[in-house]
Amino acid sequence: MIKSRKMEVFAYIAIGLIAISIILPFLLLLMSSFTDEISITRNGYSFFPKEFSLNAYAYLGKSSATIVRAYLVSIFVTVVGTVWGLVMTVLCAYPLSRRELPGRKVMNFYVFFTMLFNGGLVPTYLTYTQYFHIKNTIWALLVPNILVQAYNVMLAKTFFQSSIPVEILEAARVDGAKEITIFGKVVLPLAKPIFATLGLFISVTYWNDWTNGLIYLTDSKLFSLQNLLNRMTSNIQFLSSTSLGGNVTAADLPSQTVRMAIAIIGVVPMLAAYPFFQKYFVKGIALGAVKG
To answer: What number of other Cβ atoms are within 10 A of residue 288's Cβ?
Structure first.
């Protein structure tokens, strides 16, 4: 009993240290965004800034209209992409989880094969631009990521196999329910944990994506938040490394603190959304994990 109590205390201490190690970088990021640029250059990063400043956010505030538009683009893409991705993933994973599906092993292998190989950037670019014509359209931020990800399919398939008893499905069939009724009224209500898990994965993918905008977009009005912040960071780096002339020097630009503020702007929405998914997230991961 004493040994068990010691192990429990040790586990709590270990978990506490891990939690602190995760929180501290975010805290340092936040405090650095409120620190004066010269103070950071002179004293380095600190949890307790010697000179408090809002210059970084004031600098970003000059582009507030552009940032708001980019926020709206990111929100639209994330919401639509998450819903669409969930629908496609579940509609692919559920049939693969049913043992009576003809050709199930071949289709499982086909899905798994895509985890190992892909067509490469150049063929993908040519396909999307010449056949799907997504360049400089909002679809450039949606279509490349909307294709079903094999990992998500395998996770959902394992969840359906291990967490939804076959007896429930058979009982529904005995009562005369068709497959679409079974799926809608029996399977979906029991699949909330995996929906929350996949929803978080897919939404984070869309929210953090900036490569599609970099590759397929040249119209800045269609930029997502990540694309806009990436361009702003590049512009600040360029201006900081060149002679600006007049009364403005490179030292006057809050280059380091702006990077911290940009990171805060990009990460806060996901941090705010995570608590709503947390209830189902761990359960979905545990039940959907591939078992040997």
So the answer is: 25
Q: Assign 35 to helix, strand or coil.
A: strand
Q: Is the pLDDT of residue 292 over 50?
A: no
Could you give the CA distance from residue 23 to residue 29 in angstroms, rounded to a whole number? 10
Residues 6+ apart with CB under 8 A from 17: none
Which residues contact residue 254 at a Cβ distance below 8 angstroms, ignoring those fewer than 6 apart? 37, 53, 55, 56, 59
Count Cβ atoms within 10 A of the Cβ of residue 4 and give its class: 0-12 exposed, 13-18 middle, 19 or more buried. Answer: exposed
Residues 6+ apart with CB under 8 A from 116: none
User: Concatenated DSSP letters for 226-285?
Assistant: HHHHHHHHHHHHHHHTS---TT--GGGS-HHHHHHHHHHHHHHHHHHHHHHHHHHHHHHH
Domain spanning 63-288: CATH 1.20.140.10: no
Strands (E), 93-224: none
58 Cβ contact list (under 8 Å, min separation 6): none
Model-level pTM?
A: 0.79
Over the stretch 235-262, which tens digit does the pLDDT of each residue have?
777 766 665 544 444 445 667 788 788 8
Do 104 and 98 touch, CB atoms closer than 8 A?
yes
Within 13 Å of residue 27, how many CA atoms lie on the same side as its CB?
A: 10
Q: How far apart are CA 96 and CA 287, in angstroms?
A: 17
- Domain extents in the chain: 63-288
Question: With left for phi above 0 and alpha for psi between -120 and 50, is residue 256 left, alpha or beta?
Answer: alpha
SS3 of residue 90 by DSSP: helix
pLDDT in tens, 53-106: 888 888 888 878 888 898 899 999 999 999 999 998 988 888 888 888 888 888
